[in-house]
Structure formats: C-alpha cells, structure tokens
Amino acid sequence: MIPQARFERRISMKREYMDGILYAMLFAVPAYVLGLYFPIVGGPVFGILLGMLFAKKRRPEKTESGIRFTGKKILQYAIILLGFEMNLFHVVEVGEQSLYVMVFTLAAAFLAALVVGRLMGLDRDMTALVGAGTAICGGSAIAAVAPVIGAKDRDVVISIATIFFFNVIAVFLFPFLGHTMGMSDQGFGMWAGTAINDTSSVVAAGYAYSHDAGAYATIVKLTRTLMIVPVCLFFALLVMRGAKKSGAGFSLRRIFPMFVLYFIVACIVNTTGILPAELSHGLGMLGKFAIVLAMSAIGLNTDLPSLVKNGARPLALGMVCWAAVAVTSLVVQHALGLL
C-alpha cells in the first residue's frame, strides 16, 4: 500500500505536469499531422520547429514543469512504446553478413564523430548525439541517447536538425548514385538501410530504386534500430566511469537507462506475438506521437538565435559522419561480395 501522503504527492505532481503536457500538445498534434503528409520531414522536426517558433511567446508559469517533464520523461516512455513495433526475427532475416556491415558502419560513425568532434572543439554530448543519430536511426537514436548522457535540449535540437538535413539529401542522392554504380537491388537495399538515418527516408530512397531494394532496405533499417540497446548501455557505462574518475557520487540505478531495459521487454513481447498485431501497431504509433510531443516541448525551451549561431560546426560534423558511414557500408559490402 502506498502511504496516503505519498499518494497525494504523486497525484499533485501529475496535476502539475498536466498543464505543460497539454500546452506542448497544442504544437504536437499539428506537427504529427504535418509529419503524416510530409514523411520525409517527419513529425519530430515539425514539432521542434513549431515549438521554437513559440518559444519566446509568454505562457503560463504553471506550464513550465510539465514542459520540462515532457521533454525528458515522456521522451523515455516514447522509446519504450517504439519497442512494440520491433521484431527480433528481423535480425535473422538480414543475415550474418548484414550484421557485419552494421557493426562496421556503427564503428565508423562514432570514430568519425569522436575524432572530428574533438578537432572542431565540439563537446562530448554533441558528438555523441550526432554520432548516434548517424549510426543508428536518426531522431529515435538521439531521443534514446540524450537522457542517458544528460544532454541539453539545445544539443538535442541541433543534432536532430543536422540529421534531418542529410536525410533529405539522401532521398534524392542515393538512388542516383546507386544507378550510376550499377548496384544490385540487395546491394542498394543494404546501402540505404545502413547509411540513411531516418526510416521514412530509407523507405523513400529504397523504393525509388526498386521494389525489392525498398523491401530489403526496410528490413535492414528495422534491424539497425535495435542497435539502440547496446549503444545506450555503452554510453551509460561511460557516464558511470566518468563519475568514478571524478570522485563524484553516483547511483547505478539512477544512471542505468532503465527505459532501454523496458524497450527490450517490449521488443520481446512483440516478437512472441502474444499481443494482437493491431494493439502492437497502436502502441508503436503512440510512441511515435510521444516523440513528436517531447520534441515540441524541447522546441519550446530552445533559443533559436543561439541555435543558428552554434549550428554550423555540428552540421559539418554530421556531413563527415554521414560520408564515413556511406563509404564504409560500400567498402564492407564489396569485401564481403554483397554488391
């Protein structure tokens, strides 16, 4: 039984957050709808943009705590819900050789982010977010890694904007390059699935090349999304190691990304098929909306002039990481005889 005083505090806290959640929803709903009509841009980007447009507008003071809660906690809940659309059998479908390509592209993205980020004088959080977004699945990976490393809202917005920019370019550039190089359907599907960040952009580029390439690229991309789990755990270990070295007190329970554990559970539940397909799909869609809601809240707390002023170097970093992943995917495929 929950003591009466604690129960009342929880109810009061939920009421306190509701004002901010509802305020963020004013921007999330139109952003989500716009994302359905323009999937290449996507709801999260529209959410950030709408939030930033109204960031300087006066709003009730009582909404502030709820907006912060939405940008932090609801973001984690969203990642858990996305697990209900993940199927572990996808790993088997793409095969052992495809997983080799993913391992090398992940390593290339993070190595490029680390080296170039240091040369450009970018901080750890920015390089981690751009590296994760490029290596795994764009906005979803950034949303998963951000709470693990305690990234600032400004860094989240800049990194997502960077990934979005290269997603749009990839949709038009990749099919052209694929035809120029005479790639097979499977080869191009592997390339698009491992080197383009956002799922909608992978689907668009893949099916622009051919139906078979699009189908294979989608499977590869969904498998790549599961790499969120080891990457988040890796960053959690880095955070704990840093806390030990600095002598600061730390709690394993506080630092360990429990939402990643729940994400794994959601993946397993969906893979077993014990939930109706309609329910799993609905939970996944709810997770996608929750990401848009969280991004709208983050946009509401973002200083647009500061964003513009500090966005050039992350954009350059994103370009280097993206090029590293695209080239690495081609080189590894060639070495394995997959092209």
UniProtKB/TrEMBL annotation:
It is a multi-pass membrane protein. It comes from the Bacteria. The keyword Cell membrane applies. It is found in: Cell membrane. Keywords: Cell membrane, Membrane, Transmembrane, Transmembrane helix. The chain crosses the membrane at residues 20-53, 74-92, 98-116, 128-150, 156-176, 222-243, 255-277, 283-302, 314-336. One of its GO terms (cellular component) is plasma membrane. Pfam families: Cons_hypoth698. Belongs to the UPF0324 family. This is Sulfate exporter family transporter. It comes from Selenomonas flueggei ATCC 43531.
